[in-house]
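Observation: inputs received (chain + arginine).
Thought: call the complex predictor directly.
Action: predict_structure
Action Input:
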Amino acid sequence: MAKQQTWGGRFSGGPAELVQEYTESVSYDRVMYAQDIAGSRAHALMLAKQGVLTDEEAALLVNGLETVKAEIERGEFVWRRDLEDVHMNIESRLTEIVGDVGKKLHTGRSRNDQVALDFRLFVSDRTRVWQGLARSLVAALLEKAETYRDTLLPGCTHMQPAQPVSLAQHLLAYAAMFQRDVSRLQDADKRIRVCPLGAAALAGTTYDLDPSFIAGELGMNGIFQNSMDAVSDRDFAAEAMFCGALIMAHLSRLCEDIIIWANPAFGFVLLPDGYATGSSIMPQKKNPDVAELMRGKTGRAYGALFGLLTTIKGLPMTYNRDLQEDKQPFIDQDRTISMSLEAMAGMIGELAFSRERMAAALARGFLNATELADYLVGKGIPFREAHHLTGAAVALAESEGKGLEELGLEALRSISGVIGEDVFAVLDMKNAVARRNTPGGTGPDPVAAQIAAVKAWLAKS
Ligand code: ARG
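Observation:
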């Protein structure tokens, strides 16, 4: 049996070693030290404003908290597992520094509302970092899109060649995803940054507290609506982690494109050395490990979300110790997302695309078949029939090992007499892309408009 705990007034013995190890959270929740100290500072100032503490007492606490913070940041702070969590570690050291007044800090507060506050601030701070990293990734995608706005490649559906598109259009599709991710995080932040302090253990408190003052001090959007909900609500973390899971989904799709493009059978892109590895047995290999790992880590990030959702499921009111299991999934997902976003932005910045290989791929796969069908429609043939006739043209070209544009006029006229010399301009891939000038399309005008819009989005904070 170890010595008495902070909460041990009614206990005659301390917890067994194993139990201490089982129940502690300081080994990981110490990452929230800055948020814990900021919350305690705001709480002390509020207590003084409300006349619960004197101004001198609050000043001692605030200075003491600063000293604790400096000790932590200098690496001098001794974290004690027997003090369970970040909150009790900091409060205990504060009391050593400032004396008995340290014991007044927790007036009108419970660890239940304290941990909810710390975690909300931590999740908000970290997801704001995600926003910045996602923005950098959008900037990297935009830069490549501008460089390759005139480069064409086969656009696919069902992973089969469908219609020619510009590489800019393909890359800007990902920019749109990550822009949505940023906007989703901004929206979630409104709900994450709500102050639960003042809910106390579960029922509010008898002290005349002012939660709005604390919210103001901490730059939060408002205060809790119901004390029981405030101490047990982890929706904000689930929402943040859903946003994180979706970021990983988007990254994993981009990884998959890069992996396919880097396969020598495609050869659309050369992997930068810094983002690839060799094989220990096959000397010719250049493996897209970073992209593969990111695709793999997506599963882990989903798992973190599901871990939290499962922890929340069926929890009775109000705070239950189960909720201590909320932090590790977030911390793990945060590391994955932050590193993945940064690595992807770096990798995109260094990708060298092969215009030649993309052009060669365009020449195969009949990507201009839709153009021929639309051309026939323009000559008065109903679309269904035009579709059928184009299919026959494709079969003919395929049997001759040619592209549609390589069939002579005579051969094409054997498919339909309405076909004239003007068909060859229509079958040209560049023209096919240039004609798709509808809003959001792959034509030069909508691509230029997208580039301008993404630039404007990046320019506003
Ligand atoms: N370490 C705890 C957690 O992370 C802090 C809150 C503990 N509250 C309590 N009443 N035991 O949830």
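Thought: report the result.
Final Answer: The first strand starts at residue 152 and ends at 157. Residues 25, 29, 85, 111-112, 115, 321, 323-324 surround arginine (CB under 6 Å).
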